[in-house]
Inverse folding.
């Protein structure tokens, strides 16, 4: 009962905070609401017994990525919102597609089947600690997807360095 | 009607147990906060005293015997000063910035194990929790600089956040070696694993990580020689230039609590926490009667003295030099340390 209450709170807060993020006029306020949003997402992870994911969520998204956002926003010093006229004329078409997608997703949700539970039950995770369980799985069973993800990140990093270096030369 | 009929005895027992648990946690929070704030007050006093003596001065002498009441005089003075808010400031953000900064620092005290059985929240990812909160503290600094609407504060805020996020990487990587040796992220488990290891403290086998951590810890807390965000000669006072009265005190408090935290983290991860190395106990067996919290606090004080010592000794770095140290030296060295720790661990496993 308590857990359902928590979940309702988190789900509700995440939706409200997301709306606040996209509707604020001041970009710095948006970023601050987003910070709160990330904390709520971390709360949902904690709620799923995924303490490592919760900590990483805050460290990577709040402590890293969002700070870089804030750098960009602050250095541009946008005290007022730029107002640009509509740059597309496909409003109704876009709305129809969005509505269609929404209906499709809602219909897909009803045929949702939970994946078969693996050997890691909540008790086992608690006993072995979440970090250990995650690490073991990542480096044994899921080593290929993990390596591919690392490679993609590495390529992005090298790409960024190459772009920055080229600009330095010219 | 009897109450016992409505609520079954087991529920009552569970409720009483819950109540006692909550009361114990609240009591622990009160103790940690009171002791922590007292330490902050006297950390400022001893900072002035120690640096004074290093410069052949006396330091504060007027208020109370040897100036012992000086921190309280300072606190009362700060409390009664006028609270000034710049006209063009973003008021709400200006208000919450110091609160975010101080709260992010204080929350970390809850996962620090001060003694074998004294920790408010014994969580499995204690070390990651501290990193996460250190990341949140950056926002306090950053948005205070922005909300003040002042060039100096803005520059200070930018510098500070760039500094903290760069050195956080070095600090995190330097602690990975400790995590690998202890095999846990729980701070109490790290101390226990350390007490049972051959050297008794990880500062000896992990000396590379230890050096990187100490440098990064000084940079994280914006202390000399890395106090560029507050460089008086360039930026007036950095990100809190526009803050006065109690809001300034909140920044001040947060900064000193962050120092206590870094000293505690160093004690936990490298100096053995509340334990003493077994060889010391073998030579002086009577030392095992001293409660563990004494050793913990003494190690923290030693680290604090180190903070004061380098402040009185080393001049400030230039900004580009400072960034070069972080990115070009500390981070590669810390990554090398991880590799080395892993290799040694594998080789030891093969040999033994």
């Amino acid at each position: 009962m308590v857990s359902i209450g928590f979940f309702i709170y988190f789900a509700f807060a995440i939706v409200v905070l997301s709306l606040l993020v996209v509707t604020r006029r001041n970009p710095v306020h948006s970023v601050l609401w987003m910070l709160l949003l990330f904390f709520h997402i971390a709360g949902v992870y904690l709620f799923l017994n995924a303490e490592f994911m919760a900590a990483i969520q805050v460290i990577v998204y709040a402590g890293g990525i969002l700070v870089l956002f804030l750098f960009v926003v602050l250095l541009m010093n946008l005290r007022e919102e730029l107002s640009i006229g509509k740059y597309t004329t496909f409003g109704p078409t876009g709305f129809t597609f969005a509505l269609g997608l929404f209906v499709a997703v809602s219909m897909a949700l009803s045929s949702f089947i939970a994946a078969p539970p693996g050997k890691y039950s909540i008790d086992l995770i608690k006993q072995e600690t979440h970090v250990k369980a995650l690490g073991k799985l990542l480096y044994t069973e899921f080593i290929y997807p993990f390596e591919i993800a690392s490679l993609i990140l590495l390529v992005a990093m090298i790409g960024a360095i190459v772009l920055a270096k080229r600009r330095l030369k010219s | 009607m009897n109450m016992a009929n409505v609520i079954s005895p087991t529920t009552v027992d569970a409720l009483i147990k819950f109540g006692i648990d909550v009361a114990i946690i609240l009591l622990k929070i009160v103790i940690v906060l009171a002791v922590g704030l007292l330490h902050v007050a006297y950390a400022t006093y001893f900072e002035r005293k120690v640096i004074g003596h290093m410069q052949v001065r006396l330091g504060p002498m007027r208020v109370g015997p040897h100036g012992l009441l000086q921190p309280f005089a300072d606190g009362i003075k700060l409390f009664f000063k006028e609270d000034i808010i710049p006209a063009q400031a973003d008021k709400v953000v200006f208000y919450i910035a110091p609160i975010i900064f101080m709260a992010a620092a204080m929350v970390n005290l809850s996962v620090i194990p001060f003694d074998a059985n004294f920790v408010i929240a014994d969580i499995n990812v204690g070390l990651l929790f501290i990193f996460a909160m250190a990341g949140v503290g950056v926002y306090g600094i950053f948005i205070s600089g922005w909300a003040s609407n002042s060039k100096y504060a803005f520059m200070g805020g930018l510098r500070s956040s760039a500094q903290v996020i760069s050195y956080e990487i070095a600090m995190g990587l330097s602690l990975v070696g400790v995590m690998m040796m202890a095999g846990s992220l729980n701070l109490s488990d790290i101390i226990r694993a350390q007490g049972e290891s051959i050297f008794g403290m990880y500062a000896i086998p992990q000396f590379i990580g230890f050096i990187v951590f100490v440098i990064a810890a000084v940079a994280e807390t914006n202390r000399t020689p890395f106090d560029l965000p507050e460089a008086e000669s360039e930026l007036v006072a950095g990100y809190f230039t526009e803050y006065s009265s109690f809001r300034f005190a909140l920044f001040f408090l947060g900064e000193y609590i962050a120092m206590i935290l870094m000293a505690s983290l160093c004690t936990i991860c490298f100096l053995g926490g509340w334990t003493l190395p077994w060889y010391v106990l073998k030579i002086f067996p009577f030392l095992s009667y001293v409660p563990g919290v004494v050793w913990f606090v003494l190690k923290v004080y030693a680290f604090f003295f180190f903070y004061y010592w380098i402040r009185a000794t080393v001049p400030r770095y230039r900004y580009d030099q400072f960034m070069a140290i972080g990115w070009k030296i500390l981070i590669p060295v810390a990554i090398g340390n991880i590799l080395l720790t892993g290799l040694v661990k594998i080789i030891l496993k093969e040999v033994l």
Notes: The radius of gyration of chain A is 21 Å. Chain A touches chain B at residues 26, 28-29, 32, 35, 51-52, 54-56, 58-59, 62-64, 67, 70-71, 74-75, 129-131 (CB under 8 Å). The mean pLDDT of chain A is 83.
